[in-house]
Design goal:
Blueprint lengths: L1 E10 L3 E4 H5 L6 H8 L3 E4 L6 H16 L8 E5 L10 H8 L7 E4 L5 H13 L7 E9 L9 H4 L4 E11 L4 E9 L7 E2 L11 H5 L6 E2 L1 H23 L8 E4 L4 H11 L10 H4 L6 H11 L8 E8 L3 E8 L2
Parallel strand pairs: 4-5, 4-6, 11-12
Antiparallel strand pairs: 1-7, 2-3, 6-7, 8-13, 9-10, 12-13
Helix pairs in contact: 3-4, 8-9
The structure holds acetyl coenzyme *A.
Acetyl coenzyme *A (ACO) binds next to helix 2, helix 6 and helix 8.
């Protein structure tokens, strides 16, 4: 039993924040940000926009492109670390906005590889007999709400955005070919959000100590990201009995251009086989891969039969890859 994406869409907020804008408010430079990360600008959600607003816009585009009505959906899953609130799930809020009821809707959290984990989850759900035939998967973040605007180590990296995919069961040769997921909770303390959960509930103290903002040991995260992005890509290829030369497109998580380049080099791919948009959006965590796929679709870059390799790494640590035949 296979699973195929039949429609993909994205939404990014209108507000563009350039490196030059950040130079004015913190001790950083366009030169540092571009050479260390590849980021030139990113999008910020407006104060009245929450995650479900971005998700709804991305979902509308994906459904229209798929030719699927909201009422034809059997399940809605949202992958995010920045939900509107702890509960109800952002997926339920999106369901309400879509004007449908009585479908399962829930959020899942696997940080940056959330969309990759979500694809595997959908693959499982859609294989449960006829219970679910059509699913909506949204990778989406409003990371600017959890990043410290005064911390130059992180504030230059992240942006907001949302990407959505409509998936169906499909027994043809198109769709997901192989998948691989991994994780290592021992390394969770290298990238985390200390306060606001049951371990450290929000208090005046946590706010004073800026513990409601994400913390990252960038250099260590970088090292593990390089290792697992490369390894995940090789594992899904091996599982499929394919080699890097078979890949039409590498669509990596957009966290840092140097991580993307090292993954590409390990696979021996030329730059033109890798889709990169980190310069425009920065790191949008779970949204980065579906936003990239949606842009590629809009630009006519994805052709039926293309072999597309998705690969990601993030907090947890979590990592994974999906190999698919586009169609
Ligand atoms: N502007 C100017 N200087 C800066 C900035 C900045 N914005 N940020 C840091 N620096 C300085 C540091 O203070 C340091 O100065 P020092 O040597 O005097 O102490 C110097 O630049 C080097 O800092 P490093 O952290 O070593 O820089 P590095 O080359 O490692 O780049 C970066 C930092 C971009 C964060 C990189 O480590 C990285 O991309 N890490 C991985 C991020 C990632 O993949 N995250 C995964 C997913 S995110 C998620 O799951 C939500």
């Amino acid at each position: 039993m296979g699973v195929r994406i039949i429609g993909i869409g994205h939404y990014v907020p209108d507000k563009v924040v350039t490196n030059q804008d950040l130079e004015k408010i913190m001790d950083t430079s366009d030169e540092w940000i571009v050479t260390r990360t590849g980021i030139k600008e990113r999008r910020y959600a407006s104060p009245d926009q929450a995650n479900s607003d971005l998700s709804y816009e991305a979902a509308r585009v994906a459904l229209a492109r798929a030719g699927v009505r909201p009422q034809d959906l059997d399940v809605i899953v949202v992958a995010t670390v920045t939900p509107d609130m702890s509960f109800p799930a952002t997926a339920c809020l999106v369901q309400a906005r879509l004007g449908i009821r009585e479908r399962p809707c829930f959020d899942m959290e696997a940080a940056c590889p959330g969309f990759i984990y979500g694809l595997e989850l959908m693959r499982g759900l859609l294989s449960l007999g006829d219970t679910y035939r059509t699913g909506l998967l949204i990778g989406t973040e409003v990371l600017t709400r959890i990043m410290d605007p005064l911390d130059r180590n992180t504030a230059v990296l992240f942006g907001d955005g949302s990407g959505a995919a409509v998936l169906v069961k499909d027994d043809s040769e198109f769709g997901i070919i192989s998948t691989y997921l991994g994780g290592d909770g021992e390394l969770g303390n290298l990238l985390y959000l200390p306060a606001g959960g049951s371990r450290m509930p929000t208090s005046e103290e946590t706010i004073k100590n800026r513990q409601h903002y994400l913390k990252m040991k960038g250099r260590e995260v970088f090292r593990h990201a390089v290792q697992w992005m490369q390894q995940s890509a090789l594992i899904v290829l091996e599982k499929a009995g394919m080699s890097p030369e078979d890949i039409t497109w590498l669509v990596p998580h957009q966290a840092n251009i140097r991580i993307i380049d090292s993954t590409r080099e390990k696979l021996g791919l030329p730059p033109e086989k890798v889709y990169v948009n980190i310069d425009k959006y920065g790191n949008t965590s779970a949204a980065s891969i579906p936003i990239a796929l949606s842009e590629m679709q809009e630009k006519g870059l994805l052709k039926k039969g293309d072999i597309v390799l998705l690969v990601s790494f993030g907090a947890g640590f979590t990592w994974g890859a999906v190999l698919m035949r586009w169609g």
